[in-house]
């Protein structure tokens, strides 16, 4: 049953095989159809964003299973490092959780306690839903899920506060933390170097420090990127869990681009029509054919 959970968790599998490189997408709008549509673009994982996204608890549950049904890992970003939020995401069947705004080693230890079943933590057992997001790989009982979850689910912490950056090496060494994930915009804000264009040298230095801390501790590293170009840059730098795009950027960008092309084509056709009409008028006046 451990094999079933490992194979179904496409993010964990990608991080631990081959190059260890894994690309994902960010979902901020609710809807299980949207989840499946994003997943079918070829990503290993999709983050269901319950921190800044417009996604409620029941919608998160539905998207978790929609993603798992097409063999893509549902990763849930919870709003805060609260035990009940950890429980809701994992009980829904999330293959991993992303937890924002940690500030200390104690925060990381507290998270592990709420994310792991005994004897390693204090997570409660009883959800009838969690095993369903692994059944695409085979039948999994509640007992199978409970006895294999600790080793097969991912606990991911965002390093995006000055306090977390100052103690990132210690956070990286906390047992049970699998990935250090960078939120560059909040990190930039919190260290006094907001992102207003390209990343400042100070922010780039902080990002490099977090990457090294993860590598030195034998942990994985991740980063939020707004585009494929950014994602490629950080893949080449050595990051492994990399977001490529979010739906609230992709939808308006593609639609605006399509509209721009349509207006351009219309303008070209209109210009040709005006030109043709003018030419016809000249011919009519001169008697030419």
From TrEMBL:
Domain HpcH/HpaI aldolase/citrate lyase: start-end pairs: 32-220
One MF term in the entry's GO annotations: metal ion binding
Record's keyword annotation contains Lyase: yes
Name of the protein in question: HpcH/HpaI aldolase/citrate lyase domain-containing protein
InterPro entries referenced in this protein's UniProt entry, alphabetically: Aldolase/citrate-lyase_domain, HpcH-HpaI_aldolase, Pyrv/PenolPyrv_kinase-like_dom, Pyrv_kinase-like_dom_sf
Keyword entries, A-Z: Lyase, Metal-binding
Species for this entry: Exophiala oligosperma
Keyword Lyase: yes
Organism domain of life: Eukaryota
Annotated Gene Ontology cellular component terms: cytoplasm
Record-stated family: Belongs to the HpcH/HpaI aldolase family.
A Pfam short name: HpcH_HpaI
């Amino acid at each position: 049953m451990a094999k079933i959970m490992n194979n179904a968790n496409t993010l964990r599998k990608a991080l631990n095989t081959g190059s260890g490189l894994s690309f994902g997408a960010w979902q901020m709008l609710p809807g299980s159809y949207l989840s499946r549509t994003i997943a079918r673009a070829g990503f290993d994982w999709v983050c269901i964003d319950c921190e800044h996204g417009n996604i409620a608890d029941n919608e998160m549950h539905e998207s978790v299973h929609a993603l798992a049904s097409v063999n893509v890992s549902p990763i849930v970003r919870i709003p805060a490092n609260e035990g009940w939020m950890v429980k809701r995401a994992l009980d829904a069947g999330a293959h991993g959780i992303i937890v924002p705004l940690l500030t200390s080693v104690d925060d990381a230890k507290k998270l592990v306690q709420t994310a792991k079943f005994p004897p390693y933590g204090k997570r409660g057992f009883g959800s009838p839903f969690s095993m369903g997001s692994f059944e695409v790989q085979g039948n999994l009982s509640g007992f199978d899920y409970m006895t294999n979850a600790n080793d097969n689910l991912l606990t991911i912490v965002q390093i995006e506060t000055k306090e977390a950056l100052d103690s990132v090496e210690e956070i990286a060494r906390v047992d049970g933390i699998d990935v250090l994930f960078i939120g560059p915009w909040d990190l930039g804000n919190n260290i006094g170097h907001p992102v207003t264009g390209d990343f400042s040298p100070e922010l780039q230095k902080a990002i490099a420090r977090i990457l090294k801390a993860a590598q030195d501790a034998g942990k994985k590293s991740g980063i939020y990127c707004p585009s494929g170009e950014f994602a490629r840059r950080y893949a080449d730098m050595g990051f492994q869990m990399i977001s490529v795009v979010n739906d609230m950027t992709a939808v308006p960008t593609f639609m605006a681009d399509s509209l721009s092309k349509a207006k351009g084509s219309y303008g070209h056709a209109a210009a040709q029509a005006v030109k043709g009409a003018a030419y016809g008028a000249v011919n009519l006046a001169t008697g030419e054919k």
